[in-house]
Amino acid sequence: MPTYTPPLRDMQFVLHELLNVSEGLRKLPQHADIDRDTIDSILEEGGKFCAEVLFPLNQVGDREGCTYKGDGVVTTPTGFKEAYQQFVEAGWGALGMDPDFGGQGLPHVIHSAFMEMMNSANQAWTMYPGLSHGAYNALHAFGTPEQKKVYLTKLVSGEWTGTMCLTESHAGTDLGILKTKAEPNADGSYSITGTKIFISAGEHDMSKNIVHLVLARLPDAPAGTKGISLFIVPKFIPDAEGVLGARNTFKCGSIEHKMGIHGNATCVMNFDGAQGWLVGAPNKGLNAMFVMMNSARLGVGMQSVGLAEVAYQNSLAYAKDRIQGRSLTGPKAKEKAADPIIVHPDVRRMLLTQKAYVEAARAFSYWAGLAIDREHKHPDEKVRKENADLVALLTPVIKGFITDNGYECTTLAMQVLGGHGYIAEWGLEQHVRDARINMIYEGTNSIQALDLLGRKVLGDMGAKLMKFGRAVQETIKPFTENPAMQEFIAPLNSLQSEVQKMTMEIGQKAMKNPDEVGAAAVPYLRLLGHLVFSFAWCISAGVAMRRLAEGASGDEAFYKSKLSTARFYFAKLYPETAALMQQARAGSSSLMELEEVNF
Amino acid sequence: MPTYTPPLRDMQFVLHELLNVSEGLRKLPQHADIDRDTIDSILEEGGKFCAEVLFPLNQVGDREGCTYKGDGVVTTPTGFKEAYQQFVEAGWGALGMDPDFGGQGLPHVIHSAFMEMMNSANQAWTMYPGLSHGAYNALHAFGTPEQKKVYLTKLVSGEWTGTMCLTESHAGTDLGILKTKAEPNADGSYSITGTKIFISAGEHDMSKNIVHLVLARLPDAPAGTKGISLFIVPKFIPDAEGVLGARNTFKCGSIEHKMGIHGNATCVMNFDGAQGWLVGAPNKGLNAMFVMMNSARLGVGMQSVGLAEVAYQNSLAYAKDRIQGRSLTGPKAKEKAADPIIVHPDVRRMLLTQKAYVEAARAFSYWAGLAIDREHKHPDEKVRKENADLVALLTPVIKGFITDNGYECTTLAMQVLGGHGYIAEWGLEQHVRDARINMIYEGTNSIQALDLLGRKVLGDMGAKLMKFGRAVQETIKPFTENPAMQEFIAPLNSLQSEVQKMTMEIGQKAMKNPDEVGAAAVPYLRLLGHLVFSFAWCISAGVAMRRLAEGASGDEAFYKSKLSTARFYFAKLYPETAALMQQARAGSSSLMELEEVNF
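Predict the joint structure of the above. Result:
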């Protein structure tokens, strides 16, 4: 019953009209020849695959879930395996990967847009190749040439999939206390022993081999995070040519019964002297882990963009179709027994909240995709560094702000459907359940907030934040002359200066009491999120106004819709910043004064 | 793995120290002899039943759900039937019901407190007797003496259960367009034909008979809500002595697969010329429906108080037990590998948000319970009217504000557990799924907001709101002399005057454009919610200060905890009002300007 249509026009608006990607990519030698038509046709084809192959499996996957068959065997829901086969054959998994290992070498920003559609269609399924991508990133950055030759080519082709084995039952946020051991063997390999939990895609029947990247401790490792190393631990041990040999000595012990993403196997992995190979330097595993993790955090943000988009589409369709009650200003659909519920202001609030959040989140995450391309491929080192800083600063905002909003959006989408929203067959409640994990995994949203305020902002005395501020001002400069733009520019500028002022205040308080950072971090992250979204709506409005002034060639309705949504954002969502500023300024005392025993 | 301990001390604080119930009840002739000890021992015993009998069935019910066996037969999860037997035998269902029909005649406020514990223990199970209570209320108010004799006694004893059959697939919020027909029979009964959906407890195996109260249209009924009548339609048709006879001609056609409350059967009911009897006057069914509905709305608020309480208890236990990372101000549990996560400011924010919301919601809903007792049983008509007005005004706030907060609280409780929160066995994710329905059923929260602002506030030009304002000022008067109380009284007073000012503004705008009501209603309801919670925390702080000044007889920690939680509320939750005021004032234009086709 639910439907999904890839939002190609909206994606093109961001890619071509807001970000001007083909112009930006022209400055990166390896992407200089990608034009707008190529991008559009890749996304159109990719969208078909998502809508026609992945989306029909979304409710099936939720209903059936994965099954633990005993003795380490896990089967995925009906159709998952076949869809993966199609995905690999069509080369979709290799889209953004390195041509040296068989990848198609497309820019990250295009990969981001494709990921949005995959996640709209089926988040649980998309996590299988998603985890491979994390493993690919770590091996690409830290693997030896031999490791890359064997493992990367198979991860790129999709013949094998990957995982990230970090968490243990007593060690989640705090990886420093993990216990899995790695004992050196005579042949240069290691014997890995320990139990990992919450391993997404840890065991399944979709690929010939599964490559686990496992954090463990060497015998002489220092305590804490400085004593963690990263190991490749393949399910079947390949020879130097990638031909599979013996089954390694570890198994999936069970899978979790969880709130959502039922189609993805969340595994307990028992490593029992399993053979593994060190990736990168001994005791430097956390560096490699952060390469996976940062990419995963951006990926999680994209999961919520995707879920919020599909939920919006279905709640909008319902709101136009469902007749119930009359408009407060008199009947609108006089020929019917009642008006469609989209006439009601509060139904519109629920729809526009989704629309405003999804479209800004799309702009924000594609922008980050392009920044990653620049960070890695721009010939000018200064530009690379500039973009690396912006990506570092905003990664926790993408993860934290977009996933919190994604949960709110899917919750609102359900609410538009009333009682039907609570019923499984309509599909909305699944989106809420799936969206809920995004606020937790790859670092809870509290951790994102601490990373943002403590490390990324105060860690360099606000230098990265100032860079972002300058980028904002530079981008809006072309619009500042237009008096009609003041309704958007004024609140953006006011928020930007408020955030800067508040950052200094918190920085000063934090020097006396580090708990002030923990107390302010969550509202601070949301404030920065609103700063980014104000920016996104400001330039969206600016571009829309310009196009309308130029005549908009038959597309007036589209641009007017952008203008109206921008107005809605500033009228109804931006005001949250008033509360957030008070909350961030309220400090730590009211949080800390109650003694633990008196809770 | 999850646990539940009835929060007796906190309940007593509200009943005896904030509300002074036994003094209040002394003025109601039929409750004049209930003292504090009686109340406490009823709740202690009731709490045992909830914790020992109902709570162990909560996860079972979620896992197994109800089963549709074909041919109209529905079975409930393992243990549900037996628990219901115990419930009936112990007389718990008859607690607040009329002694004329076998009830125990206890005050509503005690019933409310008992309902909180039942809902903490098992919302899905509690809905079975909960629906009976709605049917009881309607029959008690509108049934003939004969109907009462046959049906009420069985509903009170619990031998039979009841339902409310309102919704049809095309008619939910808008009952005026419902189609179920009632054709008069020669013997004075009616033949009911039509299909009802979303009928909670519509069919099950827990009681001997099920009494459906069905909304339907008489042949000559006027269109819309003025042509709806209410009928009793029993599953088995009783004779005048209540002896069961023929099976009536209707069946459960299927049950819904839904996000939560799996243990409660949500039924499609097909009435096929079923025999029914008119309740109340022809075409006046909506009056009777509102009697059920208002009681149900208060009951839904209590469901969320219960869920938020049990979620809080379990997230608190986890936060004290789970060690992970170190406090930002240096190690606290030096003997351990890490500190318990309750040392982190943001974990405390998540716990204190729950605590502040749950405790204020408890105070608010018990207060409403006592007001209902006064409304129905006070000898002075003026007092009855006064309380009726307050209950009418605040019912949508209880339903809307407490259930929205309940969802937020259970979502935060899950978040405290990180990845474990997403796993079913920990129990937290079930609370979120169960809490989600409370924002939808018995009138979505948008409808509550419209009812509040349109009907209850603007409908009498703010008269009921002024009454509430006077009640607030009278109650806080004993505390206003204390300078230490200003930190709580000042924000309460400021919010109260802001709400009054804003009400006039919206009223004036609404005269020109009725959509202004729909546009402001949801933030307005939350503002009024915060006004009530500010009031609750203000008097809680006042009482706590007084007790501490008196020496507090060994209970200092308890009262200090109230003071700290009040401070937290005003520092971190109250600031939401700054955003809400901007949102409510932003009006309808940004909601209405986008044309439907351009969404």
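Chain A has a mean pLDDT of 97.
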